[in-house]
Amino acid sequence: MAVLVTGGAGYIGSHMVLNLADAGEDVVVLDNLVTGFDWAIDGRARFEQGDAGDVAFVRGLIEKYGINEIVHFAGSIVVPESVTNPLKYYGNNTATSRNLIEAAVAGGVKHFIFSSTAAVYGMTGLAPVIEETPLNPMSPYGRSKLMTEWMLQDVAAAHPITYGVLRYFNVAGADPGKRSGQSTPLATHLIKVACQTALGQREKMDIFGTDYETPDGTCVRDYIHVTDLIAAHALLLKHLRRGGESTTLNCAYGQGYSVRQVVDTVRQVSGVNFRADEGPRRAGDPASITATGEKVRKLLGWVPEHDDLNEIVQHAYDWERHLMTRNR
Ligand SMILES: NC(=O)c1ccc[n+]([C@@H]2O[C@H](COP(=O)([O-])OP(=O)(O)OC[C@H]3O[C@@H](n4cnc5c(N)ncnc54)[C@H](O)[C@@H]3O)[C@@H](O)[C@H]2O)c1
Ligand SMILES: O=c1ccn([C@@H]2O[C@H](COP(=O)(O)OP(=O)(O)O[C@H]3O[C@H](CO)[C@H](O)[C@H](O)[C@H]3O)[C@@H](O)[C@H]2O)c(=O)[nH]1
């Protein structure tokens, strides 16, 4: 009996593998390494290189390893790219997930956990969202993920499988033990870009838009430490295993920070007053998106341990430094 982690060579999936392996679980990673790295997969997991949308291949894995649960991280994740290349997102997010779910149902998989996103909400105003807030994704990325949520609802109504959808807010930070982190060199995420700029890997960074209707004119996001996010996955897996119902949960702290606040925090943590130019808005960005995270706390008993922007940035910065020495 093993847990299948798709995208386990990527940023968030590699932390799930650590959590499961630390708990003594048998883990199989399925990843095509399009953005992930085989060195990011913990040595205690078994690795199968392939595509999560390859039904026959996934069916073979389910049989070979006796897979009862799938935690599905594999996908394409860059919001602005989804605006210029939507079919990539409807392909690698929606269609790939559809095939993976088909393989799961055919192979008798019992539980399915899916990485969804705050981007399913779209523009929401300044108040934190709850799971019942109307969904109105602003980007093909958000829509490609929402379609997967819908597929899971329909499939779970028709077949003996339960699911958990986790809508991640902005994931950041790294394993406190420096075993994994965000390793994609050309990542577009704010905290990663700011840390790279502080370390001199980029000459400067840009602040995308200063004319939003937010307190300081820059976009507001709810940054969640990757280790806390993964703890929610582990609790969700337990919930489903003990017969808990399918559920959809926001993963967030309920605290928003603006782009300027994040840039200032990275300057403080690094001690480098790096260059951050004010530029135009980036396509597909909502002004503000935060959530209370009340449902995940109540249903799963989730208690965040790293809900502090300084700590998140410190861990992200430490990982970035670690990558520099690693790549030397
Ligand atoms: N990073 C965030 O802030 C964030 C926020 C919300 C949701 N998410 C979701 O979390 C998941 C993981 O994101 P991440 O930040 O770790 O990204 P990532 O790019 O680091 O990881 C994705 C992994 O999936 C693999 N992959 C992609 N397509 C595949 C396919 N068809 N078959 C097999 N493997 C494939 C990649 O090689 C990579 O290892 C994604 O589904 C993403 O949409 C991320
Ligand atoms: O160099 C940069 C990078 C980002 N930003 C700004 O910082 C904010 C956060 O941007 P990120 O790219 O870090 O994150 P997003 O909010 O765009 O998206 C992230 O979180 C979403 C959920 O909120 C999605 O799930 C998505 O996968 C994930 O990349 C945005 O306002 C963006 O415009 C900058 O100003 N400069």
Automatic annotation (TrEMBL):
User: What EC number(s) does this enzyme carry?
Assistant: 5.1.3.2
Q: Does the keyword 4Fe-4S apply?
A: no
Catalytic activity of the protein = UDP-alpha-D-glucose = UDP-alpha-D-galactose
Keyword terms: Carbohydrate metabolism, Isomerase, NAD
Q: Tell me a Gene Ontology molecular-function term this record carries.
A: UDP-glucose 4-epimerase activity
Q: Native species of this protein?
A: Devosia albogilva
Please tell me which top-level EC class this enzyme sits in.
Answer: isomerase
Q: Pathway it belongs to?
A: Carbohydrate metabolism; galactose metabolism
What protein family is recorded? Belongs to the NAD(P)-dependent epimerase/dehydratase family.
Task: Keyword check for Isomerase, yes or no.
Answer: yes
Subunit (UniProt): Homodimer.
UniProt-listed CDD domains: UDP_G4E_1_SDR_e
Look up the record and name the cofactor or cofactors this protein needs: NAD(+)
Listed Pfam families: Epimerase
Q: Where in this chain does the record put each NAD-dependent epimerase/dehydratase domain?
A: 3-252
Looking up InterPro entries in the UniProt record yields: Epimerase_deHydtase, NAD(P)-bd_dom_sf, UDP_G4E
Q: What is this protein called?
A: UDP-glucose 4-epimerase
